[in-house]
Amino acid sequence: MSQYALRGLIVQLEFFEIRHETFGMTNSGAVIMFRPPDAQQSDPFIPIPITREQIIDEYYGKGVASLRDENS
């Protein structure tokens, strides 16, 4: 994934986090869909939850401006 597309995903994740907080929604967040190398085509993917901060730290590697108003 290109850096600009990953940055767009990170910004979108924060937008969804804000929306879920505003409306009291639960069970949200990003997941990495994983299938072991020896898995068969019919085997299900394994969802591994990951936070926005983990994506930034592990894959993007630099800061991303926040959508949140720092004065609220």
Element layout with pairings:
Layout: H1 3-22, E1 30-34, E2 46-50, H2 52-60
Antiparallel strand pairs: 1-2
Properties at a glance:
single chain; 72 residues; alpha+beta; two-stranded antiparallel sheet
Could you explain how this protein is built, in words?
This protein has a two-stranded antiparallel sheet. The protein has 72 residues and is of the alpha+beta class. Helices cover 40% and strands 14% of the residues. The protein is flat and about 45 Å long. The mean pLDDT is 85. The protein starts with a helix and ends in a 12-residue tail after the last helix. It is built from two helices and two strands, in the order αββα. The protein has one domain (3-36, 44-60).
What percent of residues are in strands?
5-15%
Segments where pLDDT lies below 50 for 5+ residues?
none
Write the element-wise H/E pattern from the N-terminal end onward: HEEH
What's the count of strands?
Answer: 2
